[in-house]
Amino acid sequence: MTYTQEFKDPEISKALVARIREKITCPLRLMEVCGTHTMAIFRYGIRSVLPDTLTLLSGPGCPVCVTAQKDIDTCVMLARRSDVILTTFGDLMKVPGSGSSLAGEKAKGADIRMVYSVFDALAVAKENPDRQVVFCAVGFETTIPTIAGAVLTAKAQGVNNFSIYSANKLTPPALATLMETGGVDIDGFILPGHVSVITGLDAFVPFFEKYRIPSVVTGFEPVDILKAILMLVAQKESKAPGLVNAYARAVADTGNPKARAIMDQVFEKADTIWRGIGKIQDSGMVLRESFHKFDAAKKFDMPVPDTREPAGCDCGRILMGLKRPDQCRLYKKSCTPMHPVGPCMVSSEGACAAFYKYSR
Question: pLDDT tens-digit profile of 309-320?
Fold first, then answer.
């Protein structure tokens, strides 16, 4: 509680804003990578107090938003199987697939259950030994260790009717791809706090050493975010880029070694597709061969579905910082939280959902 109140202090926030305005002398484009940062920035009205020369961009930090259309369609196909109970987090339910959504399939009678943890899905499997229970694993380094823990538990307890469909992703490779993409203009990164609790600052060292772009890991309160912005402005103005941990109360340089060890025991890196970005080498996490019996993609011999991206949806360009949500022609017209066209309007961490809820 002490930490929370101190990092919401309005006087400290005002002082930080004044310092930002004092230091900045040229236009800057900073990208927050984490979806929770996106929501916090909108919720606290941080954009409204920054100078006009400073632009904040929302990046590929919402796991549901960057999930490829193929993966959404595969989850829909799994849900249609009569022998499967599909379990998922709520954010995935309304994401439109090529022809349907999980919410649509549930309305038609599919056995789809929203859970708060992958261990809830494991409990469903224990309670229904005559059914196959699949968990849609969509997330970053923050949640992958927990999913790995559930797989290890299932193996230890002999729960063989439990499996996961892995659409898990790693953050640093996506940042590198952004830097290599033509048209993407970023002067600095607000790096994700939750991810860094697991990976540590060290995970971003190869990225920083290659691109030498100002980068700061920070927390989610107003003072955290404004402090990170001030640091990035100072680095850019002094032409001295750095990789800085401004979230030391939660993030260590080495992160959480035990969590990473569990993750690496169960998963291995693989190429995977990110919505709007394309295939990124070694950016996905798939189950190792010794855990293939818990891999839904291998347990159920399913053909790769023909996918169709939502017509007119700019979610992919928004995730790359090439557009703002209100620059999409569908925004607040055919695409709303009640009737979303793309995942950025669905997820609680989506840029379009945040823009819709808080932007005035």
Answer: 888 999 999 999
